[in-house]
Design brief:
By secondary structure, this protein is mainly beta. It has one helix at 28-31, and strands spanning 2-6, 9-12, 17-24, 36-42, 49-55, 59-62, 70-75, 80-85, 94-101, 105-107, 111-116. The strands form two sheets. Strands 2, 4, 5, 6, 9, 10 and 11 form a seven-stranded mixed β-sheet that branches. A four-stranded antiparallel β-sheet has the order 1-3-8-7, with no helix packed on it. It is globular.
Length: 117
């Protein structure tokens, strides 16, 4: 399975942005519905931190810093995991990575989100 993240960009504080992570590869269709899909983010000089996770199609969990503002969802037909980010703050700035675990950890290439205040 390979992961391709997209949707990053530059926005003003208070605005919204939607990230997408699309899975591809020979096993992506067979297992995608049940895969644990997660989003992490990283700022230069800091460790990568957990943002949100979805298991199956409706079991979700969020980091405290984004709970109530971000929504993670999965489109099994498109093999895509979305992260809807609302009420963005400057501290949400970072490179966002999607992640799963299928016979080992798999990371997407990252997409940069910049929130200006």
């Amino acid at each position: 399975v390979q992961l391709q993240a997209s949707g990053g960009g530059l926005v003003q504080a208070g605005e919204s942005l939607r990230l997408a992570c699309t899975a591809s590869g020979s096993d992506s269709g067979r297992y995608f519905r049940d895969l644990r899909m997660a989003w992490y983010r990283q700022v230069p000089g800091h460790e990568r931190e957990f943002v949100a996770v979805i298991v199956g199609t409706d079991t979700t969990n969020y980091a405290q810093a984004v709970r109530g503002r971000f929504i993670i969802s999965k489109d099994t037909a498109k093999k895509s995991t979305a992260l809807q980010m609302n009420q963005l703050k400057s501290e949400d700035t970072g490179t966002y990575y999607c992640n799963t675990n299928l016979n080992g950890e798999i990371w997407g290439q990252g997409t940069l989100v910049t929130v200006s205040s």
